[in-house]
Amino acid sequence: MKKGVMRPGHVQIRVLDMDEALIHYRDRLGLIEMHKDSMGRVYLKAWTEIDKYSVVLREADEAGMDFMGFKVTSTDVMNSLRDELKEFGCQVENIPAGELNGCGERVRFDSPTGHFFEIYAEKEQTGKWGVTARNPEAWPEDLKGMKTSRFDHCLLYGDDLDGSLELFTKVLGFDLAEEVMDGDLRIAQFLTCSMKAHDIAWVRHEEKGKFHHASFFLNTWEEVLRAADLISMHDISLDIGPTRHGLTHGQTIYFFDPSGNRNEVFCDGAGGNYYYPDSPVITWDASELGKAIFYHDRVLNENFLGVVT
Amino acid sequence: MQMHKVRCAGTNAEFLCSEDRPLLIAMERQAKDLIPVGCRGGGCGRCRIRIISGDFETKKMSKKFIGDSEQKENLTLACRTFPRSDVIFELRTPTQYDNKSTMRAGSSDSQRVINR
Ligand code: FES
Ligand SMILES: [Fe+2]
């Protein structure tokens, strides 16, 4: 049941070197640099997003994800979800408005898999970048690199998948869209709060709180191939692809930012991967795991499973 | 650009690396498989080694894998390490990479089945 959570709104990623990271996220992925705050964090957005930013980069001594934030429909929704999060047993912290530039109050909470999340209701809206809200043109001409159109989802690695599933479905109103089952054990879960195939996903892993990738949306397979060309042209660290997933059937390529955080750009090139509240859960058997992850190779790549930040 | 020899301790396995290229990338380009490859960005720790002899310089690396004590022992991440002389190294892969992730462990049989 929907509880007022609209979409993934932002992700704060730790990078080792801000200059290198900016070249990657701005000039290669094609995000637009929107702001730099007094802590040195850099804020970027993909061009179709209406809010001011979706990616926040923080220079740090370790790579990884600080937190992922979801935008909810109203402050009332945020306040009632805060109570429910506490009741569920989350450690809840109120982050005052303005701590992230242009963002209202945020409610930060931990999760059974050891990741930190936030909900918030307000963020400055600058509108889609490069086009007007009135009689808009189709797309802006001066986008860079891969021209990614939106921040789409994160895939996280952690231990207590059942706990995070319960938190996100019961408290936050997400639905389980796809899963991988090894007998009774759910080893991967893809959750949605929208019509998208997934807004957040987890894979079971011994360590808590690991970051597998942040994913950005492209429109076509042609654009995925073009991204692959850019990855070679600029000697970006490639993980795997271009290929197709079995899970969600997205067409995809994985690569790493200069600090070793994995990124994905993908398009939903099968046509059937949207979600309605009455869509049945799609289950993949662990015996088909290779095909579930990499639909063409049908074999898992060691790094895709083991390398996380 | 000066080329240096990079050798794995106790073996004859070696590759060449110029001063402007990280060890790990030079190794991959020569199609050698001496050091495990992960993110190539100093973030995941998969390529951790110890330099037994030789001079080198590094770019910034995740403190999680190369803290101050590791740095003193000449541990380093091959993807962020540039040779300044011939170098001999040994593998120091972090222990989390010995442990199979649950996804892998849980499906080891099935993986064998799906391998073409
Ligand atoms: S390959 Fe990830 S730290 Fe070197
Ligand atoms: Fe993804």
Briefly summarize what is shown.
The complex is a heterodimer of chains A (309) and B (116). In chain A, 19% of the residues lie in helices and 35% in strands.
Compute the average pLDDT of chain A. 95
| Ligands present | FE2/S2 (inorganic) cluster, fe (ii) ion
Radius of gyration of chain A: 18 Å
Q: How would you spell out the order of helices and strands of chain A?
A: EHEEEEHEEEEHEEEEHEEEEHH
Based on the structure, what is the oligomeric state of the protein chains? heterodimer
Structural class of chain A: alpha/beta
Polypeptide structure, described:
The complex is a heterodimer of chains A (309) and B (116). The mean pLDDT of chain A is 95. Chain A is of the alpha/beta class. Helix content of chain A is 19%, strand content 35%. Chain A is globular. In chain A, strand 7 (106-109) and strand 8 (117-120) form a beta hairpin. Chain A is built from 6 helices and 17 strands. By secondary structure, chain B is α+β, with helices and mostly antiparallel strands. Chain B contains 4 helices and 7 strands; from the N terminus they run E-E-H-E-E-H-E-E-E-H-H. Chain B has a 5-stranded mixed beta sheet. Chain B is globular and about 35 Å long. The chains are: A alpha/beta (309), B alpha+beta (116). The complex binds FE2/S2 (inorganic) cluster and fe (ii) ion (FE2). Fe (ii) ion is lined by residues 153, 155, 213, 215, 264 of chain A.
